[in-house]
Amino acid sequence: MNVKFLRTQKHLTQEELAEKSGVSIRTIQRIEAGQEPKGYTAKALSKALDVDLATISNTEKSKETINYSLVKLINLSSAFVSFIPLLNIMVPLVIMYFGKQINTLTKQIISLQILWTITSTIIFFLAGSLKLSLSLSRLFSLWVMIFLILINIILIIINTASIDKNKKLYFKLNFSFI
Length: 178
Hints:
Distance between the termini: 24 Å
Radius of gyration: 20 Å
Shape: elongated
Oligomer: single chain
């Protein structure tokens, strides 16, 4: 997308964007004139404008069309299998590849589910250890599992609503597993 359009949409002057991003005004002028931002500059501008890196870049990869309905389905597919570990990763991954929606948004969705699976597994095993050491109710582990599944479903629903409204994730990572 055009940096000038994004900048004016955020009601920023070139000077304000330069200050916010740490990129010189002259560089911003060149980019707005058609030069492609690369490396640090692209990352700094995408962070300052609060958009994905692909949105800033003019490469062919960023020009691919994103089917937001399919991206929402990829995100929601995790919720339907969130109670079965690894399926909350595999199902969206399969839909992503067969739907040809391999982009930063879908990679973030999968990465978020990978991180959630690892974190919730660790929490579940810690809860099991806690249950044994403190002689808690037999149902304690079940309640922890239900709580973790509900948190994941809420996270998925909030991200789906954000994709629908803003075309980006509400909960996103600064890194990607894939």
